[in-house]
């Protein structure tokens, strides 16, 4: 998956916005105002940071050398995935996992506002 395909995948999800809150080099995807994915625009290698359930995050890091602790993020809850190496299906599944974690953490009121 490349960055353009990743962008389309994220934006197709319900309630997702694309923003540059940390400057012009970091693309951020949010659902209902909460971040679920970040990627750099100024690197040659496409990588993305995604939220992850803590135990699953550790399991992934042990199993795959292209998945590491979240770059400049809380490594307990975030993984950074090399999108140039990760299989498209796996990157899609991990993105869905991240999105779902954020949606599940929304209040009932916000879920109702966004139709979740």
Automatic annotation (TrEMBL):
It comes from the Bacteria. Keywords: DNA-binding. Transmembrane segments: none annotated. GO terms for molecular function: DNA binding. This is Putative DNA-binding protein (MmcQ/YjbR family). The lineage of its organism: Bacteria, Pseudomonadati, Bacteroidota, Cytophagia, Cytophagales.
